[in-house]
Amino acid sequence: MIKKIHYIIMLSLIGFFALILINTNSNPVRESFIYFPPDPDTTFESAKTSLSILTQEDEDEYTLSLKTESKLSDTAYLRQDITMLYEEGRLLETMSKWEENIKKLTNKKKIKSEDSGHYEAVSYHYGEIHYPNDVIKSAQEMSYAQLYVIDSPMTPLESFKEPTSQEEVEWKKLLDHAVSQQSQVVFQSLIDQFQINAEDYYIIPLTKLHNYQDAPLPGLTKKQSVDAIGGIWEGIYKYYFLGTQPEEGEVESPIGSTVPYILLHKDSPYLLVLYQTKSGKNVQLIQYLNKPIIREPS
User: Fold this and answer.
1) Which of 1, 2, 126, 156 has the highest CB neighbour count under 10 A?
2) Which one, of 46, 167, 181, lies nearest residue 105 by Cα?
3) How would you classify the pairing of strands 7-11 and 282-288?
4) Quick check: 11 and 289 in contact, CB under 8 A?
5) Per-residue pLDDT tens for 68-106?
């Protein structure tokens, strides 16, 4: 059995620096981005994630099309969009793009997959706006897309976002039930290891965080929610999207990791982010509001 390692990482709403890493894509991957206070004068005019079946390669394989589009009301010093695609609760693929001095950003990727499944794509759209005297503000938006794919030997390949027939309703129930069972096992493992009383928290999967784009998070004001969401995504990007960094050893790819759970404490000003890596390591990120970044030993 794979030994599970306990990670505790303190996050903040404001980071201190951003470095650049170059990967095999034409667009470099930023090692981190910094969430700055929201700019009341800059908003996203549009932000969208789309997911569809592009082609069917053969009886066992098909290609998905993942695409993001976003547009700010004003030109930003920096624009960045990141996307995570989950298949039945596990990270299947990531996508990221950033550019300077633009309003609009688009990105797309083709992903090969097979068998029936429930796909969920969640995106974070970000803009960094610079003003004179070193004043920096930001704009953020989230978007989401889902797709159910039915790959059965008895029927032609089909897909739907929401069921429109009784057959699709039954397939949705079947796939949702399978994912729910697996997620419950993982979640129980997480709260057992970290000795968490789930009743003390509001629990939000990352794939549902977009529901709070315009509504406040439970127990928080709208302003607090905007800052908390920015801090969540800053941490998710640095400590999840780019890989899990243990105290010793190589960075583990996020591919195959579970959907992170966000646990917002009902009485104290902090939240947790919990997930499990592909290799079975349980990870806990802790975000204290308005505190500097601190990394605690395991």
Assistant:
1) 126
2) 46
3) parallel
4) no
5) 999 999 999 999 999 999 999 999 999 999 999 999 999
